[in-house]
Amino acid sequence: MRTRDLSYWLFLAPVLIALTLVVVIPLFFGVYYSFTDWNGITSGEFVGFKNYLDLFHDADFLASLWFTVKFSVVSIILINIIGLGLALIVTSKIKSSKFLRTIFFMPNLIGGLILGFIWQFIFLKVFSGLGDLLGIEGLQGWLSTTQTGFWGLVILMSWQMSGYIMVIYIAYLEGLPAELIEAAEIDGANAFQRFRYIIFPLVAPAFTVSMFLTLSNSFKLYDQNLSLTGGGPFKSTQMVAMEIFQTAFGENKMAYAQAQAVIFFVIVAIISLTQVYFNKKREVEM
User: Fold this and answer.
1) What is the model's pTM?
2) Which subcellular locations apply to this protein (predicted)?
3) Measured at the alpha carbon of residue 181, what is the angle toward residues 177 and 187, in degrees to the nearest 5?
4) Which of 100, 173, 190, 263 is 20 to 30 A from residue 123's alpha carbon, by CA?
């Protein structure tokens, strides 16, 4: 028993050490620096809650936070709807299901910066060309306004993550008891009724996982935001991750940026834990 206990901790030790060095210790240092006026070079003096109080009067930070919340809500809804729809398609009785799974998942393999530049070309060049050809002014000047920049980011994020979320739903859909679906068909339930009363409640655990992943990825988005819009025009599409980066490395306000990061961490943690708690309550045991 002692040998087993020792081997368990020996195998676990590298992970715990790495987690402590990379996550736990930097977190404590970051919280400490958020109460100082540290600029990244000189040792900062303790200023108490000054940085946190200044956040509530920082128009740029509040605007980026509100933009991030709006983007995350829309992205979470679209990605989960599209991901579930794709999962239902590829788990149906079609011959090309394996090929379609590969095609739908491939965008997730492309890096965020590259995706941003690809969609920037599509929005600026392809959309403009189609607008000239079809005479549609709405396709002209995409990414030049806050509204089109917002929807550009939503489209990019949905295109990238839907295939990844699809895989999670596939795992649960393929584990559904076939006899239950067949019994519902025999009883005369149509496709919509089978989905609403049988399939959707049974894949609720997948929805909990998928919603958590899409929420965390949407809130911390940076690469795509940088390469697609760069936060423009006039910082109107700048998300919180980019705002923190610009504050720290653009303005050399390291302590203030750390305070932004701490507040951002607390907000995301509260939302994520609340989402998981309420979704868990609705899950149906399979």
Assistant:
1) 0.86
2) Cell membrane
3) 140
4) 100
Residue owning tokens 């060049």: 125
For each of the chain's 286 residues, which pLDDT tens digit applies?
455 677 788 888 899 999 999 989 999 998 999 999 888 777 778 888 999 999 989 999 999 999 999 999 999 999 999 999 999 899 887 888 888 899 999 999 888 889 999 999 999 888 888 888 887 877 787 888 899 999 999 999 999 999 999 999 998 888 888 788 888 888 777 878 888 888 888 888 888 888 888 988 899 899 999 999 988 888 899 999 999 999 999 888 899 999 999 999 999 999 888 888 887 776 644 4
Class of domain 57-282: mainly alpha
CA distance 66 to 240: 9
